[in-house]
Structure formats: structure tokens, C-alpha cells
Amino acid sequence: MSQEADSECEVYSLDRSWKGPCEIVPQWEDYCWTFGGCKARWEIEPGVPVSLFTEDCFGGRVRSAAHLPSKVVQYPYLNPQTGPFFVKGAEPGDSIAVHFVSIAPARDWAVSCTVPLYGALVGTSATAMLHDALPELTWVYRVNRQDGLVSVRGLRSPWTVSLPLAPFHGTVGVAPPAGEVRSSIVPDMFGGNMDTPEVCAGSTVYLGVNVPGALLSLGDGHYAMGEGEACGSAVEGAMVTTIVVEVIKGHYCEWPRIESDEAVMVAGSARPLEDAYRVAHAELIKWLVETLRFDRLDVLQVLSQCAKSRIANVVDPNYTIVAKMPKYVLPSDVSFMGGAHDHLSALAVRAMTREA
Amino acid sequence: MSQEADSECEVYSLDRSWKGPCEIVPQWEDYCWTFGGCKARWEIEPGVPVSLFTEDCFGGRVRSAAHLPSKVVQYPYLNPQTGPFFVKGAEPGDSIAVHFVSIAPARDWAVSCTVPLYGALVGTSATAMLHDALPELTWVYRVNRQDGLVSVRGLRSPWTVSLPLAPFHGTVGVAPPAGEVRSSIVPDMFGGNMDTPEVCAGSTVYLGVNVPGALLSLGDGHYAMGEGEACGSAVEGAMVTTIVVEVIKGHYCEWPRIESDEAVMVAGSARPLEDAYRVAHAELIKWLVETLRFDRLDVLQVLSQCAKSRIANVVDPNYTIVAKMPKYVLPSDVSFMGGAHDHLSALAVRAMTREA
Amino acid sequence: MSQEADSECEVYSLDRSWKGPCEIVPQWEDYCWTFGGCKARWEIEPGVPVSLFTEDCFGGRVRSAAHLPSKVVQYPYLNPQTGPFFVKGAEPGDSIAVHFVSIAPARDWAVSCTVPLYGALVGTSATAMLHDALPELTWVYRVNRQDGLVSVRGLRSPWTVSLPLAPFHGTVGVAPPAGEVRSSIVPDMFGGNMDTPEVCAGSTVYLGVNVPGALLSLGDGHYAMGEGEACGSAVEGAMVTTIVVEVIKGHYCEWPRIESDEAVMVAGSARPLEDAYRVAHAELIKWLVETLRFDRLDVLQVLSQCAKSRIANVVDPNYTIVAKMPKYVLPSDVSFMGGAHDHLSALAVRAMTREA
Amino acid sequence: MSQEADSECEVYSLDRSWKGPCEIVPQWEDYCWTFGGCKARWEIEPGVPVSLFTEDCFGGRVRSAAHLPSKVVQYPYLNPQTGPFFVKGAEPGDSIAVHFVSIAPARDWAVSCTVPLYGALVGTSATAMLHDALPELTWVYRVNRQDGLVSVRGLRSPWTVSLPLAPFHGTVGVAPPAGEVRSSIVPDMFGGNMDTPEVCAGSTVYLGVNVPGALLSLGDGHYAMGEGEACGSAVEGAMVTTIVVEVIKGHYCEWPRIESDEAVMVAGSARPLEDAYRVAHAELIKWLVETLRFDRLDVLQVLSQCAKSRIANVVDPNYTIVAKMPKYVLPSDVSFMGGAHDHLSALAVRAMTREA
Q1: Domains in chain A, start-ordered, CATH in brackets?
Q2: Does A182 sit within 8 Å of D183, measured CB to CB?
Q3: How far apart are CA A27 and CA A103, in angstroms?
Q4: Residues linked to residue C150 through DSSP beta bridges, in sequence order
Q5: What does pTM read for this prediction?
Q6: A127 to chain C: nearest residue by CA?
Q7: What is the H or E stretch that residue C313 is in?
Q8: Smallest Cβ distance to D127: which of A37, A181, A278?
Q9: Fewer CB within 10 Å, N or C, chain B?
Q10: Could you give the CA distance from residue D121 to residue D136 in angstroms, rounded to a whole number?
């Protein structure tokens, strides 16, 4: 109980616990807090892997049980993005394929908080209620990289929990269409704060390009997260991540598509939550029909019997659901988005082999 | 294309393909089409397994690609329930634990349909649109019990798909509170048409008792289903199912709870879909707090990082989401609902051993 | 009941303050708490006005600032309905037209309350939140019939407010389709707890008949109400009401339709609130197209520019919106539902003239 | 553009039919298509009325029944805004009061259209459906300024309709917070495309200032509109409008507030529609409590019995509802936002008197 404001609370360090090569390590003034609206800070060459550091969603300012977001973080400086990257050759009307070669915790600690007016089970600025906010609390997690675990102790209960480490990026996106600039808290057609565990090592994210160079950025590392992110934050931590990018000329994805070795997916972001479901599934059907040239109703039928529909977040300004079609039901010779996932996966394997 | 009304379409048989003991096989006039509103037809003795037959959601009337629900099924005769069962000793204020010992396809075929004004991606009677309905179509699935597969051919595409057989009951419920009688299409606090794959062999469903004997009924067998049941129907088929029941005196569950060997769950049913998420997660937190006596915010925190939130349906009059807390994060000595799941699982093992 | 009353809080009387003819005054055991599920208690002869008494939504149990619903009302005994009435000649597939000749407060007081887990701006059983409930409070209103006002004093503020008396019935409905029985708290296709001020003297409500005699009932008098009923209750009071009914053979309304001298309306009840909007407007377009035989898109266009869309409630198990098309844009010779509103209005005038 | 026109369809002129003084008439390249993201084009001196021209939402490109938006309008060039205006003295943390002195149709015609993927009763990019779009159609309205009417003929029905002219601005807003730039199609905390008829002559709109000079802009004139804008467009027309502005130092409105002689209002914009209702009413309660210093629950009670809740739009990326508290229930000496509405109304009367 006393932990909330205890001067004896340990304050954790911003140093990287696990040193290793990382080409791009932003300074504070390098971070971008929006999608769109920032000048390109770095350039990406298609086919060339790049390793980069991302700060946690609180900008590293919450590093003790005594640190409360409403006290130490100054709105709107939430969710710093590493980027934007100017992707060479990317033009409006193209898509980029962003393959995640590796995503690794940069520190041996992470945090999660209850934040006033944020979360799926409390009144928020949109689901406005007359209730007072719940208490604001910070839980500090310790990472055990050997065992692949993150652990936390209850603040008010005799309870210690260890969860499998399952790192992913809550946020990846490009400059939005129509000249918009969006907060890095928002997920939408341009990607952004989708908070889906499908953005993990081994996956490829496809994003439609709206401005020259696409202006890709990413951040919001999560060491673990339950589906929906009920309390409003995941196990939030800094990451060292390697990506490799390809440009798919003349093929524009309206909504973010994701491909893994086992599945093709679309991330729909909207409110109410059924509209996120609708976008994700209707766009996945559209993608399958355009690729397989099968009848739309046959695709609907098969998807209805075997798709997974993973709730990503029920807390952001738009909610996100990922519709996921397993590849084992598809013709074996089919390839998506010009085969970018396969190219980039092969590249990734070569890069990692070279490294080792 | 011509399949839709082809006189040459094979019409499948209503016989049980896989014969075997089944104590309760309703006649047509035995079925109940509502939760509440039917007199008890059979009695269940707590602790004594009972095997029963359930008809598919179309009452077995759709058994060919040429059979369309709007032609062969007469509203409201959809989703026949086997029951109600009077559970001996169950009184208002108690809960019953319904353990599913086994759920097996009763036939070697099943069907799925697009139905006008039903489905997640079309206008419906509640999400009223000015569009014309999509074409009504019926897909017939064949069951291969040896390999554990169901297979279907595209109606308009050269596509044959095999999916893992994953049988469960779309519907299980009791008479509702407050004297209501609800269509067997509806999921709500009394259970009903939740359409969650978590109602499978090995799981225990807890339901609060509102009337003497609880008046349990079940049906709507699914041989397989994607999350959300996008087109409005799963792979719909008749089942032979064995259940065993326990009465938990003086402990009333407001919302359906589910327990498996690996997890505890709550099924929330509401619209919009985020409200189903809210009910499921808030009630799961309530259940965990009442059982573990941990602080509510600590429980929220851990649930936020490791719960699964499985979309059951986005098509019924209420949508359903199941919040699922893995048991591995809980103290090892904790037991839920008086340990009913453990008792009934042990009973089930004994029953099945005896049988074999 | 009076034991809960603060000795200094005045407890109001259940007597009718304004005596006058009222043919049907139910005893406590006469009330029905559901739509469907009650046997017919009285008979209605089409064309013959009948005057009846309706109790308030709390069954008259809240009659002092010291009376709190959670203490004095026993769930589910909320929202007592006067009825059901067996309407002679009404058969499934017909509709009944219920014309409200007069609706007058029966008492010189009324109440409104904040109720835990009810209301548009608080967590509820469906919009489940982790917040504690707001305080439960009761405000007593005084009626000034001469000036046509209801008045209330702030409980915690130096504020006295007088509002125009605007009596209507929150609830009017018939037995639901498909054998359902629904709590009198619920609005849906059968009418029920729509909470729309359009159900006022001078209006005609059309309801599709699902069972022989329709089984009409009504209640939940409101002396005044803001749009949406934000706190969960209106100015709740007993009524003396005169209705006159007509049977429209072979013309079934799926959703409740309302007609006044100035407008035709449909009440859509659903969640989320945009679905209530969709039902109301799509069904109003359907009604106009079926009556006027104009093109659907022309009707959509005109409705888009002149319809009113009145929020009725945002608190009941379904939310209700009433779409309202002014008659002045319609051909002058058009008549709806066989002219029932005109016949019944004329009858009402004659009845009231005779009375005076 | 005219090539798309059917030779028999009259193409209307972009000239102003009603000439008169108008200080600010933008050229095409002057228009701004976003809130935020445009440099200030003009300056506004507080207290000095300014008259300005606004183009219609289609940029004047739809001016015949043969002109279809999808053909003649190039996305994202929809909803041109006149502005931004740099309001002298406005700093972040202040609010501006924008009083509408007069709003008059600039032309004797206007248009309305059905647009693919837009509207409350069709599938859209967020409420994604598998249906094909409805036909795209354009209706041309004629204005009769003498009689105060707009008239339209059915395209496919023998139906001519005249509606009262009721001009207002669908759009008024400032640069958003947090460095965002939003499409002029979007309503949110910064105002924008609220589509509420309450933004009419005689009203004052209060908007929180996020950047120096506020960067006010406005447009999207509607000659008339039904509640909700069901088909996706109102009677869209160019306007000549006079506004006068005041800066309220150190008093920041989070959401748009509106004041008229009869009422105080808040416009909430969110999805689902009940969240727009929640924002509007919770923020109106907050405003009343902060101004009147009455208890929050007393304010909730009175608002629940007399507020109007006007649906503005159910078609934009956020839906909008306006909560409206009548002034007659408030203490007579109360004044809101420093009395800005009263000052500006007085100024407006003087300005108009001088003019006449």
C-alpha cells in the first residue's frame, strides 16, 4: 500500500542491460510522438536489415513503483516512436513490407500501470462516466532472459507471478493518408498503436504508402500482454529490434496486413469493437479473393469455420482486432503480396546466420 | 452455381452414422425452442453421467446443398434444445456445474449456410441496412472420424478444405431469472447460445439456478467453428454427448463460468462487443477476487498481462466473449466453486474407464 | 416499508389525489411484470374507450426521500404493467392500433432516483466497470396540475426547479414473438419499455400481434423526462389513462410504429445506440415505401433532410430511438395503417365530448 | 468537370446568387482541408465582426443531377474550410467564443447525394459489410429565399417536397491538441465536422485553444438537415456568414460548448453513439457544476428530466450528439464562460443595426 509513494522504492536504470549491436539509438529529441508530422530522421534501404532501439511507452520516465504516469509523464509525450524512416523507393500507391527479424528486451525490467481515464473496465474520455478514477498504481516487472520469463509481485496481495516473455511492438505505422497527423496512441488504417502480439519476430507487416518514403516508425515494446490490454498498459519495456523492409510497387493495402509462416491476417481498428471485427474480416476476405480468385462467399464460408479473431486492444482511441486465416487451408502454391514475406524471411535467416 | 437448387443434390440421412449407447434421444415434439417456458422432460441425478442426443440447429431439415434454411426451416423452429432437465436438488440461489464428459458427432455430415439478415458482415434485423441480402447458400461438410477432420468443397470455387474436427455445444443454459423465457438463439446471463468452443469435452460450465431444478438444456452442436462465426453458422451437426452434473448449494453465479484443467473463464454476452468484453473480464476479476481474496487491482494487473479473450460469436442477439485466466499463474492450492470441476472430471474418468 | 423512512422525510400517500372515473384499477396481485407469460386479465372491445390506472415503475414503494429502490423494491418486481388485455379479434399476423385518448397524473407527487448499476453515465450490468456505484438517492417531485408543472428541490444544493408536466407512458407492448417472455424493463420489437415521450395523449401506437388477443399491457407513467433518461429514471408516477383500440387485419408491423396528427414514427430498440437509429430509420423508410409506393432512395433522401431522430432511452437493456417523419412533406391524401389513427382520434374526440 | 454531365441535366452556376458584402472570399488554393496542418491565412480581431464565404462540402463540383461525387470530387478534397483564422490574443489554455451573427445561403441552389460507403444505413469503411454499395445519386435543391424554403423533386418518384430553410455550419473548429492534424470530415474535441444544427445564427460556440491564434476555420454549410444526416449528406450549399469572436483567457474547454439565448450545450463526438451521448452529457454536467457550484447528482437529476439530446450525425468518423440544458431551470443571474455569449450577442445586434 505504502509502495505508491514510497521513497524507498527502487528506481531502475535507463541503461541497456543487454548490450549488443544496435545501429540506431535515438536521443530524446529524435523521438516522434505522431504518425505523420515528423521529418524523416533516417533512411532505410530495402533489403538491408537495420537494428534499432525503441524506448518504452512512458519514455522511460516510469521506472519505480513510486513513479506514476500522471506525475512523471507530460501529456502528450506518451508513446515515443523511433523514426520516421524514409524507405527508399516507396511512393504513394505502393505498400511496404516490414519484416521483424528479431525483437529483444533491451532492459531487465519493465512496468505496467493503471492510468486514470484509460482502460477497458473504467470510464474514459470517450466512454465518459460520472465515477471517480480508480487508484493509479505502478507494477515493476523483472525480466529473466535465460528462462524466458517476466515476473511481478502484487502491490497489495501476497502474489508473485511469472509469465512467458513474449516480446512484440505495440506500435508500427506510416504517415496517414489525406494529410492527417495522428497521435502515436491511435491505431487506424496507417497502422499505429494496434497493440497486437502478431507484430512479433518472424512476422511481416504490410502498410500502404501515403507519402514519399512512407515515413515508417515503430515503438511501444511489450514484453508480454493479455488480449485486450484490459488495464490500459502491457508489460511496457524498451526493445532492440531488427527489421528489414521491401517495397511492393503499385499494390496499396488500405488496412494493415500481417503475414507469418502459418497465417495471413488483417488488423482492423475501429469503434465499437464489432466494427473492428468487421473491418478485419471483410478486408481479409477481400485480400484472399484478390489473391486466390475464389468466390467471395466460398471464402467467407471457409473463413467462418477456421479463422481466429484475436482481440488486440479494447483501450486505444480505436479498438483493434486481428482476423487470422491459417495457411494450411490455402492452395500450397499461393503467394501473397508478391512473396515479400518469403523473401524477407530468407533474408532474415541469412542475416542472423551471418551474425552468429 | 447450379448447386443451389439442383434436384440432383444428394440429400443426407438423419440416421446416426455412429451407433452407440445414448440414453436420451428426443422425438421432434420433445424439443424445446426456448430457455424457460418448457416443462421439465427428464430428470438428472447429480453425479450420474447421462448420455443424450442433440439435433443440429436447423432441426435436421437442411441436409443437402439444395436445402435453404429460409425454405425448409419454419421460424421460430431454429436451434432445438434437448431438455429441459430437472436437476435434482437444484434450488434458486444455487449453481449447477455441468461437466462435459464427451461430445461426439452423431452423423458423418454437417452443414453451414449463409442466411439472410444473419451474420457479422451483413445487415441484420438489429444492424438494419438498406442493402439487399447476400445469396443464401448451403455447404455440406463430410466427417472423417478416423482422421479427425471435416471437409467441404467450394460451391463456386475449385477449393476443397479439410479442418480439424473440434466438436462443442453452441448452446447450454438454464431457465432465465425474472420469469423470462428466451429464444434458444439468445445468449445471456443464463447461458444459452454462447457459441464458444470452450464448451467442449473436459470443461465444466457453471450456471446460476433461477427456478427449482434449474431446467438445464443444451444443443446446437458444432463440429468446427472460426472465432466469431462470421457467416452466421458454424459446421452444424447432431451430437451424442455425455454430461455429469453437480449442485453447488448457496453459491449463485450471475454469469456463466467455465473451468477446464488449464483455465477459469467467464462468458460475457452483450452488445456492443466491448460490453461483452467488459462483462467477461469484470466478472472474471470478481470471481478471482472472491476465490483468492487478493486485491482487485492486483488481479486486474495480472489478468491484463496473461488473460486470453476469445471471441465466441458476433452474430447472435447478444455477442459473446470469453475471458480466460490460465491456472498456472494462480496459487497451486486454490479451488473454484467448491472443487466441482475436479470432482466431476474424476467421475468422468471413472465413467469412461468403466465404459472402455 | 416505512421503517426505512427517515422520520423527518414525509412519506406520500398511495391514494389517487385526483379522483375521477377509472374503470380498471388493478390490485397488487393483478399486475404483470413481463410481456408475455401472463394470462389475459381483462378484455378490450375494439372501438370502445377504456380508462385504466397504472402504478409507477417502483410499484408505489418509493414515496419519500428516505425510500431507496434497492431497499424497498424487491427485484424483479419493477415496472408493474396494467394488463394484459385480450383484444377481441386480434390474431397473429394482424396489428393493433392503440390510441391514447388521455394520460393524466393520478397523484400529486412523483419520484426519481439514482439506482446502482443503472443509468447512461455509470457502469451497469452490461457496461461492466470496476468502479463503485454512485450514491443511491431519491428525489420527490410535487405536481401542480393547475399550472401544468412538476417541481423538485435539490437534495444537496439550494436549487428548486419547475418543469412543464408532460405525461406519457414509458411502457406499452404486447406478447413477444417466438414464445418469448420478456421483463417489463426491456424494449424490443413487441414494444415494451421504450421510454419515448411520443407515447402521449393524441398518439396511436401500432404493434404487431403475435398471440391471439395480442395481450396488450402498459405502465411506467412519466410526468416528465429528458431525452435519454440519463440517470436511469424519469419523473415516475401513477397515471389514469384512457385508450381505445382498433384491430388492423392481416397487416403485421415488425417494429412499433407511432402516428400523431403531425408525424409518422418508428421506435427502434437495440444496442449499440447506432443500431437503434438504424432500425428506426430503415423501418420508417420501409413503412413509407410500402405506403407511398415511392422509390426507396427518394424516401431516404427526403427523410435525411427532415426527419427528427428522438433519443428515447440510453439506459434500458435495449436503447431506443424514434425516427419521425413530418406529415407536411407527404402527399395530402395518404393514409397509414388503414387510417386507424384518424378513426381513433375521431372516436376519442367524441368520447371526450360526451364526457364533458 | 462538365463532361460528366448529362446534356439534359442543368448545370448550376458557382456565382453567388445573392450579392452583398463579404470581406473574405477564398480562392481555390486558399481552402484548407484539415484542422491543424494549415498556416494561418487571415487574422481575426476579437470583437470585430467579419463576413466570409464558405464553399459547399463538394467544393462546388457537384452542381447537376449528372454530377456524382465519386466522379467529380477527388479524395481527399472534400469539405473545404474557410480559414484558418489566427485569433489575436488566443493562447493555448484559453478558449475562443465564436458567435454566429448571420448565416445566409450564397446561392439559389444546393445539392445532396448518396455516396458509396457513406451513410448511417449502409456499409462503410468502418462498419465494413460484404454488400455492394447502393446507387450513387445527386438531388439538386432550389432555394426560395422569400418564402424561406428549399425544394427538391424525387429522381425516381412523382414527389416534390419543400422544407423550411434552416441554415447552419456543419463544420467549425480549431487546430487539435497533441500536434494532430485531422481531416475536415472528422468531429472531435477540437470541433470539426459536428454537423449539428445548433451551430446557427444567434449561437456561440466555445472551443479550447491548442496552438497560438487557435487557427479557427469553418465550412460545410447546410441549408437544411434531418437529425443524423442518414444518407450521409445534408442539403449542401455555399454560405455567406458573419462571425464575431472573443478570447476567454485561462479557461480551457476540453469539448465544444455551445450557448444560445435559451440553452447551454455540449457536443460529444465518439463511437459507438452511446459514447457520444455519454461525453455530451457528462461534460455538460461538469460545465454546470463548475459554473453553478451545485452538487453533481442534483445536476444529473435535473438534466435527466429536462435535457434535450439532439443527434447531430451518425455518419462521420465520429458520431455527434448535443446535450442541451434549457436556461429556464437555471438561476437567473448565472452567466457562462465569462458572459461571452451575452457580450457577443449585443455586439451582433449593434453590427446588424448599423448595417441596416
Answers
A1: 2-248 (2.60.120.580), 257-349 (3.10.28.20)
A2: no
A3: 20
A4: C143, C163
A5: 0.97
A6: C121
A7: strand C308-313
A8: A278
A9: C
A10: 14
